[in-house]
Structure formats: structure tokens, C-alpha cells
Design brief:
- The protein has helices at residues 17-25, 46-56, 70-80, 99-109, 147-158, 169-175, 188-195, 227-246, 252-272, 278-290, 305-317, 320-327, 342-348, 387-390; strands spanning 4-10, 33-40, 60-65, 85-88, 94-95, 115-123, 129-131, 140-143, 165-168, 201-213, 338-340, 352-353, 364-365, 367-368, 370-371, 377-382, 393-396, 408-409, 417-420.
- By secondary structure, the chain is an alpha/beta fold.
- The relative contact order is 0.09.
């Protein structure tokens, strides 16, 4: 029985497949691994290349299947795997040199751990390798009975990227967790959110697992035509998380943490869906509507005022109008700051942290307060743009509590504009 099963889904990557397989077979050390290439119905030469590589290189096996997506292909690989430990690799990426040698030592040193997490480097189009900004991995074990704490540790180190995981196969079999076939984009995050319910102890390794290729044209991450598919996958994942809550697998606290994590995936995509192509926006809308349970959630959205405003608009008006407005850059604050006009500050007094006193000018706000009731008129437009040219909307009598939750200040009339700076 091999020590490692390396699962590589393959779909239309004829220009990258050889480099990917080469990075596996050139790993130093014993041939204590199997590499499972799952051809997911490729329409280019990828399937034939898999067969040719397997005929030439020991340790490779090939499975051909009808196209079903990355999650289904990974599940096919899991069924065929016989190794003690599971590794995943995307077929346009590469395994870091020396990874298996480092894992052999780590697995032997920490036999009580079932799930190891490492780092990755971004493989730029010019061939350079760069670290990913914004991730912070603290090497060593992390154990907690608090799901939210485990999730924070996992996603701080490197969220939803199974090609940075080494997972004990018997543990995964016992947990009975698989990739969600209906999730046709970002398949990793519902998988690790669910698996994390079954694992109280993680081990973080200061080891590069993968060279992740960035900017490949035609991938789900770079092609705007794939936007509806992204939201279809997000909606499927949200339904799965809701079932985990309904059947008691995830308790209330764990489900709340899951919702925030799912929303952190959703909000950047929702902003991305604000494209000028009306047909693409229209195709996204049904799935974004299905994702309404995520609208109140998210941790990253709370840290950026332009996203906060977008979130409020989505909650208040639904997705159609905010996506249209954002596609024309009519009201989203480009630099993440909000400015309140003199007219707004005059009747209401300070509405934001650092705002001027009543009647003051439009200094930058650091945090917008909630207004518990709106009266006459609320209008949004870019700062400095004439209302006749760039006003987004003018709405009379917004309902009580229309603003997002937060520190409240009563107001009965708004007579100016809320402007993006």
C-alpha cells in the first residue's frame, strides 16, 4: 500500500499537464506514492497525454470519465485511492520540489494528527514564484473544541485550497465527507468547512506544497463568462451547509461561523458580478437571489466601507439594482471611504465616527452609524457630481430599520446626499 495518493483532476490542460506530472515524478525519495490522473472528459489532447504519460512513467494511473466538474473528478480519484495519506494537485499547477520528503518526516513526527496544512507560492506568468499576500501561517499544532477558532486558524493560514492539505485517508473515510458535485466553482471551501466539523486538531507546516499558477486565461477564476457558474456553485454549497445545520451535524455556533466564511467567498464575487454586460448580470441574478441567507453575513465585508454600502444596498433593495449601479460605478466609494454632505450633517448631526458637528462640512468618515428611520429623501451619487447628471436614485419614505444594524441614531428626515469619496 502506498504512503501517498496524489489526486490530479484533468480537464483541457494540454499546455500544462506535462509540467504538473513532472513535478510529481521528480520528487526525491522512494516511490511510495501513486498518482491518479482523472481525465474529466477533456476535449483537447489532455486525455491522450494522460495515457501516454502513464505508459511511460511508473506510479501513474489514469481514469477517464464523462465531464462532471472538478468536485466529481476529485471524488472519482478518492474512490480509487489506496494510499495512507491524500494529496490534491490541480493539473495546471505544480508540486513543490521536495514536498514528499518533508511530509515523510512530518507525518512520522506527529502520528496523532490527521490533517496537515502547508503553504503555497504563486506561479506568475513570467515564471517567478511569489508568496501570497494576506495569509499568515503559524507553524505547529492547533487544537480547539471551538469550531470558529479552528476555522479562523485554517483560513488565516490558507483558506479553501485543498492542494495545501495532506489528509489521512482513514480519517476522511470515517468522516464520510466528499466534494460537492453541484458546487462547480470554489469546490474546496464547502469541503473543508464540513471536514472541519470532524477534526479538533490541525497541524500547520512551514512547507510549500504547491506552485499555484495565476492568471491562466479561460479558467473559472479569470473568465467573466463563468460568473453565473460561480454563483450556481455557491448556491449549491449554501444549500449543503443549511442541511448540515438542519440535521444537527453543525450546531448553531458552527453554522454561524460557516455562514460568515461562505459570505466571505460570496461578497467579492457579488462585486465582480457588477459587469456592464447586462446578459451576464441577468444570468447571475437567480443564483444571487438564492444566496439571500448570506446577505447579513461576512467578516471581510465589515472591514471595508465600500463593501459595507454594497451589502446594505443588497439587503435593502435586492441584487438587481445594486449590481446595475455598481456596473456603472455610480455610487460605490472607490477608495473605501464615505463622505457625508453638509446637508445631511445639518439636520441629523454626526452620523459617523469622526464626522463634523451638526452643520459641518464633509470630512471623511471612519465608520458609518446606523440610522433607525428615514424620512423624506435619500439620494446617492458620486461626490462632486451634479445631481442632474449622476444621481443613482431618489426614494421617499424608506421603511423603518432600512439601514444595516449598528449603533442607532433616530432621524426623521434626510434632505441631502450620501456621497462616495
Amino acid at each position: 500500500m502506498p504512503l501517498f495518493s496524489i489526486i490530479i483532476p484533468v480537464y483541457n490542460v494540454q499546455n500544462y499537464l506535462s509540467a504538473c506530472v513532472k513535478s510529481v515524478v521528480e520528487q526525491p525519495g522512494p516511490r511510495d506514492w501513486e498518482c491518479i490522473l482523472v481525465d474529466d472528459g477533456s476535449t483537447d489532447q489532455s486525455g491522450a497525454m494522460c495515457d501516454a504519460l502513464a505508459a511511460e512513467l511508473p506510479g501513474l494511473q489514469v481514469i477517464h470519465r464523462e465531464n462532471g466538474g472538478l468536485a466529481a473528478a476529485r471524488n472519482t480519484g478518492l474512490k480509487a485511492a489506496t494510499g495512507d495519506w491524500l494529496l490534491f494537485l490541480d493539473s495546471d499547477d505544480a508540486m513543490a520540489p521536495g514536498l514528499l520528503a518533508q511530509l515523510r518526516g512530518a507525518l512520522a513526527a506527529h502520528p496523532d494528527c490527521d490533517w496537515f496544512i502547508g503553504r503555497h507560492l504563486e506561479w506568475q506568468p513570467d515564471g517567478t514564484l511569489t508568496p501570497h499576500d494576506g495569509l499568515h501561517l503559524v507553524p505547529g499544532p492547533f487544537a480547539s473544541s471551538d469550531y470558529a477558532a479552528r476555522l479562523k486558524a485554517l483560513y488565516t493560514a490558507g483558506h479553501w485550497s485543498v492542494w495545501k492539505y495532506c489528509i489521512r485517508r482513514s480519517f476522511l473515510e470515517q468522516a464520510r465527507v466528499r466534494f460537492l458535485p453541484d458546487c462547480v466553482w470554489a469546490e474546496d471551501w464547502p469541503f473543508d468547512l464540513e471536514l472541519l466539523l470532524h477534526c479538533d486538531r490541525l497541524y500547520f507546516l512551514d512547507t510549500v506544497f504547491t506552485h499555484y499558477r495565476v492568471g491562466r486565461q479561460g479558467s473559472l477564476l479569470t473568465d467573466a463568462k463563468n460568473l453565473p457558474k460561480r454563483f450556481r456553485g455557491l448556491a449549491a454549497a449554501q444549500r449543503r451547509l443549511a442541511r448540515l445545520s438542519a440535521n444537527g451535524t453543525a450546531d448553531a455556533a458552527a453554522y454561524a461561523a460557516m455562514q460568515d466564511a461562505a459570505a466571505d467567498v460570496f461578497w467579492p464575487q457579488a462585486r465582480t458580478a457588477a459587469v456592464r454586460d447586462a446578459a451576464i448580470r441577468k444570468a447571475c441574478l437567480p443564483y444571487i437571489e438564492q444566496l439571500r441567507p448570506l446577505y447579513p453575513h461576512g467578516t471581510e465585508v465589515r472591514t471595508r466601507r465600500d463593501w459595507w454600502l454594497f451589502q446594505w444596498m443588497m439587503q435593502t433593495f435586492g441584487p438587481k439594482f445594486p449590481l446595475w449601479a455598481a456596473s456603472r460605478r455610480l455610487w460605490l466609494p472607490p477608495r473605501g471611504k464615505l463622505r457625508l454632505s453638509k446637508k445631511v450633517c445639518s439636520p441629523l448631526g454626526p452620523l459617523c465616527e469622526g464626522a463634523p458637528p451638526a452643520g459641518g462640512g464633509g470630512e471623511n468618515c471612519t465608520a458609518v452609524r446606523n440610522i433607525s428611520g428615514y424620512g423624506k429623501v435619500l439620494s446617492l451619487r458620486p461626490f462632486g457630481a451634479p445631481p442632474s447628471q449622476r444621481e443613482v436614485f431618489r426614494h421617499a419614505g424608506l421603511p423603518q430599520g432600512a439601514a444595516p444594524a449598528g449603533a442607532c441614531r433616530s432621524a426623521t428626515a434626510v434632505g441631502g446626499s450620501w456621497r462616495g469619496d
